[in-house]
Amino acid sequence: MSEFINKAIEYFEYPFVRYALIVGVLIALCSSILGVTLVLKRFSFIGDGLSHVAFGGMAIASVLNFTNDMPLTLLFTVIFAIVLLMSGKNAKIKGDAAIAMVSVGSLAIGYLLLNIFNTSGNLSGDVCSTLFGSTSILTLTPTEVYLCVGLSVFVVAVFILLYNRIFAVTFDEDFSKATGTNADFYNFIIAIIIAVIIVLAMNLVGSLLISALVIFPALSAMRIFKSFKSVTVFSAVLSVFCSLLGILTAVFAGTPVGSTIVAVDIVAFIICFAVGKVFGGKR
Amino acid sequence: MAQLSCKNLALGYDGKIVRDNISFEVNSGDYLCIVGENGSGKSTLMKTILGLFPPISGEIKFGDGLKDKEIGYLPQQTDIQKDFPASVNEIVLSGCISKLSFSPFYSKSEKELADYQIARLGLNSLKNRCYRELSGGQQQRVLLARALCATDKMILLDEPVSGLDPMITMEMYNLIESLNKEGTTVIMVSHDIEAALNYASHILHIGDNVFFGTKKDYLKSEFSKAFTKGIGDIQ
Q1: Which of A179, A219, A234 is the mutation pick for testing B, counting most B CBs within 10 A?
Q2: How far does the CA of residue A37 sit from the closest CA of chain B (Å)?
Q3: Minimal CA separation from A186 to chain B, in Å
Q4: Domain ranges in chain B?
Q5: pLDDT tens, B186-202?
Q6: Which domains does chain A have, with CATH numbers?
């Protein structure tokens, strides 16, 4: 045991491990609080779709030889998030189909661009790390960490300030509109926050596994808890815990960070499912 | 002056007219039932009154102390709500959303209003229960309490008894009637013509021809005959 602790202390002396933990916890927190809203609004797959858009944005940024690809990726993802979430019920191409189209389209275009304008020697390695985030979280620069802290504070603050409105709009959009709440505006804000979270989360788990961060904690919490507030709080706590455990395991065992976190999330979901079955029932 | 008056309304969406030439008035304390067959434009009319769709032409005027966006709305259940993790208290309180203006959180007076409406509709024992675990009738009462939090001047009910069993349906109608007697104006969209004739003071029948008037006039009118299929004789 003491050997383990010594090893842990040794690891914590490396700044990249500390950065990874800070960023990991923040992303887990942000993605889980909005996950509840997204799952309930039947937008579970928007995380998947937008993460592919973010991949496309990143490909364009790297083709253009940007030193920091975050701003362009963020802009791209925000635009598509707004288009997807705002088009809503009246769109000619509806929800799931629109997400699928945008998702597959940007993935393909992104890969195509990277292939044609090959800027690095190790294309498949780059693509793999963008999609699965294999090592990017361990190579964060201080600037990226500050940016991530800033954006996370923004997301959490907006969520807390708009909590009651987000609840009302999620539960019943028509009622909120009929009593004078500008539901479209709140959907717009939700879209922007989601885009920010997804671009942040790409650093951690890569674009393919972002959906897991958004969906698993929310679904786990919904097995056990019965009010919106308790579901939101528990999913945030659970998500932070799973990410910490996942990152530490990955660092010690040398496994890929993103996949390890998702594996921990899956185990947590199974436990919550069982707990819900045993203690939940019909009361 | 009427609380709500609609003149020569043409309804529809995406520029397509679903129904036109609708005129009616609702005064404080009225109980108006909107009846008509499926597809006759009842829901569109309701959403137009609520301001969710703009009318294609004609005008909607609010008066007698009632403002736009001051109608308590009891919608039909959506799929999203069926597995929504929320407590009764949270849902009823969300009826106060329009009273927040710029504050991010509910104040004491809004929480008291929610508590009052919860008690008024006999939901005290269910206050902390999860919405998705309640029976259909209980869920409707929760949504009604939420509507009353938004306003108790006028409530608009969209098929409030659909999917409820006969006993609970009776309870629901009696509850709505008692709210009406306590001074809340009621507009109910329904295809339960029998109940409409039992409880309503006014009827708006929309279809190929539009009728608006008191229940008495409606029963006398020729074109109610086909629709009511002799129920009028019972009255």
Answers
A1: A179
A2: 10
A3: 13
A4: 1-71+156-235, 84-150
A5: 999 987 888 888 888 88
A6: 2-278 (1.10.3470.10)
